Amino acid sequence: MLSEFQETLLQSVQAFQSTQLVKNKYENVLQHLDSGILLFDSDGVLTFINVQMAKLLELPRQSLIGCNLLQLLRHPYLSRFKQKKIARIYRETIFHRRKYHELIDEYGRHWLITVTYGDQMDGDFLLSVKDVSDYKQIEQTAYQNDKLAMLGKISAAIAHEIRNPLTAIRGFIQLLRPHLLQLGKDEYARIILMEIDRANDIIHEFLNSSKPSAPQKTVVSVPSLLKDTLLLSESEALMKGCEMRLQQINESLLVSIDVKQIKQVILNIIKNAMEAIEEVQGDHAGMIEIGAKQEGNYVNISVKDNGNGMDKTLLTRLFDPFFTTKEKGTGLGLSVSYKIIKNHGGTILVDSMKGEGTVFMISLPLTHQV
């Protein structure tokens, strides 16, 4: 009788130990997920938080276990930004029954938040947070490529239809110009011809934005490329009271590029930087810094200015064809630049904050002299 009791007790202990081992194993898995995990029980008390979530909140794990939501929001080291986001998620989950949320944090990263609750959770609330910044970047790139492809179809259909009548109008105006000159109205002819030429320039830029010509590549050193490009901008920068500074760059960095196209991209970015500086100049000393450094098999060329900067809404549309904030801009310069860099197997990114200036980063594959 006693031996049967001891055997049953031993089996119970072994079963408990086995269950505990399984529990520890799964808890260890949850602790090291790349997603943040929070678990609140049916009373609203935080019973589990993994390492990743503690890092995201920038709070020590042990100070959070046992807290309810109100205590979490009142944590002395929780930032005001995170307090607002947590409160918003709670409000939308409880009152609007939303289970999926997307937000951008103070560092510009995109997060997908999923809240699981209901009968399957026995009253508990499971909240998981995943960084989806890379997916958003891929989505944005695909969206941009789709728009450029559509732009190409439109331009192919209408470009010649516009150019042909413009050419005829220009020819007739030139024929009429001597008669207008006799009437003292030559100024009219000059203005008409100038406006027709401007329309042709816009059409040309429009066509290039949809399908820039294939790169005619040559191997050049990055320092010489940037020095030559700066020489083309120095006089304009001087007139606008803007200092340009080229950082020290490794002479061995080589790229295989269409020099004319890449210069076009960099000059366009520099011109935008000058205009951004003009908006806030006054006593403000304008500065454009250009540099380049190797990152793996790529070289990152940066153009940084201390101009007016841009807000996040503007940044999301920056490479859209025809989007511009300039009174006389066509909105094609940066969309053309995007396409040129893509055709070279590179990427172009921008980081900016209103009132803090802007940084453009062009990444191009390095090459080796054969």
What is the overall pLDDT average? 80
Q: What sequence of helices (H) and strands (E) makes up the elements? A: HEEHHHEEEHHEHEEHEEHHEE
Which range best describes the helical content: under 10%, 10-25%, 25-40%, 40-55%, 55-70% or over 70%? 40-55%
Rg result: 31 Å
Structural class: alpha+beta
**Helical element count?**
10
CATH fold assignment of the largest domain: Heat Shock Protein 90
Q: Structurally, how many domains make up the residues?
A: 4
Number of strands: 12
**Apparent shape:** elongated
Instruction: Note the quaternary state here.
Output: single chain
Q: What strand order characterises the main sheet? A: 2-1-5-4-3
Described by strand count, sense and barrel closure, the largest sheet is: 5 strands, antiparallel
> Low-confidence parts lasting 5 or more residues at pLDDT below 50?
none
User: What share of residues are in beta strands?
Assistant: 15-25%
* N→C terminal distance: 88 Å
What is the annotated CATH architecture of the largest domain? 2-Layer Sandwich
